[in-house]
Specification:
The structure is a homodimer. By secondary structure, chain A is an alpha+beta fold. Chain A is 22% helix and 32% strand. The first copy, chain A, contains five helices and ten strands; from the N terminus they run βαββαβββαβββααβ. In chain A, strands 1, 2, 3, 4, 5, 6, 7, 8, 9 and 10 form a ten-stranded mixed β-sheet that branches.
Chain lengths: 244, 244
């Protein structure tokens, strides 16, 4: 048995997230079907995390068990020729047989992109949140910095997934420029359900003055979801990097 | 009666081109439905040209006749809120009542984008042609330059549309960088059916050595479509600018 790490990228617009579910097509299901065609048998593979419906990934990792190793190029060409054009396998790498895509992930980086415009843009509308009011990048960045560290992120999460430990360590959070667009970048050792999208929604409240720059302290202390901002839409969000 | 010039942009991936046709949804049909909703009556409007299925437009113009003028912002907001998110109206401008979006167009600029990669990219695959072999930009650019001027572009066109005069004047043709990607840019006073895509296909033949850099002269002289290169796929092509 060989275990391999596959790095994939996908445009999440047309998918109900990563994980197989009964009510819509998912990235995992497409991967499963493509791998089954390539390998001639039901594949055994595990993703690094789940992503929500509509969220994109520039780097999503999963490990796959194969009877034998493949030549990298043949595997990539073969699998990519079967997959739909909004999912791509970028890298194939043999790893130790006890490597685990999910449990060995030390952290992840997400990027959430905005574009400031009164009018929609057909080439950006799938990949960035349009905001009509100019963003106050300085305020948003100052808010981001207050999230760095180890906190109970319960108020920055949606219920709906059963997690008992809601403490996470944010190692980096700041406003950056991503391919010419303003974006919020956040790295942590783990993320709760909707955590990035609620942090982004809160940063937008800070930008337009509905919440003060220093609001995170009060929100953490209150431990109440309703004190944070709205959940920002999925389509601006990219899983950008997985750290091993 | 007021005549207004609308500038629109669209991601052509999901459309059977601009012009209304029985076998698939088109951009014109979407515009028609949205304008009818906004105006409360069947709109009278005319596009600057046709684009093929899958071709994108950063700037496509059409003129529209209205009983009365609208405030620009209200018109743009209203229409964009009805249109699907892959079509956007960017500009609304009153023009003279004899202005004609098609007949008054002095020329157009098209851009055809490439990306060089062994592997597909889900964020580029809708908007650029993937080429596995490195492009010879210098050769392609030299070929482009040989097209500038007034020529009978018959051999660089597909049959299927009835045009009697196949002479066009190319005012600019060169390799450029478009948003970080290599691209072929071409401006002319008019374009024949598939003309840009056949020029791009021929440029790719020149890049990989299947045709010499100076091939255009022989192709023009032969006046035979089969002496030019293949028709490049639609998805790399953008109508970039309309000149009035």
């Amino acid at each position: 048995m060989k275990r391999v790490l596959l790095t994939i990228a996908y445009d999440g617009t047309n998918y109900h997230g990563w994980q197989v579910q009964p009510n819509g097509i998912t990235v995992q299901e497409c991967m499963q079907n493509a791998l089954e065609k390539l390998l001639g048998q039901k594949p055994s593979f595990t993703g690094c995390s789940r992503t929500d419906a509509g969220v994109h990934a520039r780097q999503f990792c999963c490990h796959l068990d194969c009877d034998e190793a493949f030549p990298e190029n043949a595997f990539l060409k073969g699998l990519n020729s079967i997959l739909p054009c909004d999912i791509a396998v970028k890298e194939y790498r043999e790893v130790a047989s006890d490597f685990h895509a999910r449990y060995d992930a030390k952290g992840k980086n997400y990027v959430y992109r905005f574009f400031e415009s009164q009018i929609t843009d057909p080439f950006l509308s799938r990949y960035a949140l349009r905001v009509e009011r100019k963003l106050d990048i300085e305020k948003m960045d100052a808010f981001c910095k207050t999230l760095v560290g180890t906190h109970d992120f319960l108020p920055f999460s949606s219920s709906g997934r059963s997690v008992t430990d809601t403490v996470r360590t944010v190692t980096e959070c700041s406003m950056i420029t991503d391919d010419g667009l303003p974006a919020l970048s956040i790295s942590a050792n783990g993320f709760l359900y909707n955590m990035v999208r609620i942090i982004v929604g809160t940063a937008l409240f800070v930008s337009n003055g509905a919440l003060p720059v220093e609001c995170a302290k009060d929100i953490f202390e209150s431990a109440k979801r309703e004190n944070a901002g709205d959940t920002a839409p999925a389509h601006g969000l990219f899983l950008n990097k997985v750290f091993y």
